[in-house]
What does this fold into?
Amino acid sequence: MSSQTPHTEAEQPSFLYPKENQKPSYHTILAYGLVGLFGLSGYIFGGIVGSVLALFINKNLLFPLVYFPEFLGLIFAIGAAYHIILKQSFLSFITTSKRISIRTFFVAAGVCFSVLAAVDVAFFFISSLLGYSSFTPQFSAENISAFSLKLVLIFIPVSIFFVIQTLAEELFFRSWLSKFFGLFHLPFPVIAVLTSLPFAFVHGSNPEAAEYGFFYFIILFVLAVTLSLLVYKTNGLEAAWGVHFANNMYAFFIVSYPSSVIQTHPLFQSNSNIVLESSAVSVFLGFLIAMVVRRRVEKV
It folds into this structure.
């Protein structure tokens, strides 16, 4: 009888950790490293294509055409590397189930979207009581028809873009990078930190970082840790993917910020200070607790 102790779901979910309870071979480490390099190469190549497109189109108006190639390049490159180098199905790097759980994706997205809206509504009433306006409507009685039509026309292409963009980031940080550290059977908290730090640093190049400084980095780090915990608890990317998607959709269509990396035309523009950003941290912490204590989503 083997003396090795099998992994339990509570200790080491199969999505993050290999089935074999042993040190990885140099061949396995190299193979995973090559997968990451392939993914980055696809991202860089797509970014070059997007930069060329940006020379001819409005970056903010048609931003999906500018950024779409880099994220699609990452997905295709890392997916091909999974299959060719690791001899594993692309699906296994999204979920441990036989198919992607669309239900889990939309439940997580719906909860996140609802919590973000509830916090903003609460902050609106609190700021009103304190005598200042926290949000500026981007529409008026005179332009409501044209404004609504614009939102309807861009909803589908923007939604498709965010589905691709958030999947690409989840595949790289919460799947490939997490699985790479999982090869060494590191404790989950360590994996969460090691994958959340680069996620925060990469997004730290956004214009928001210049305005909010280190506090913006903390927000990104907390979000990344939240997403990692969702992956850990659900044995797949679907819940984290859904939260990431809902967060980006909310920022694009509902409430945006003057320093946002993409200047969109949402329903409201935030006149926020550091207090609102603190509320954002509370949102994700609250959602984190809610997802941890709820029963694990049953995948079909």
Summary: Residues 97-293 form one domain. The radius of gyration is 20 Å. The beta strands are 135-137, 255-256, 268-270.
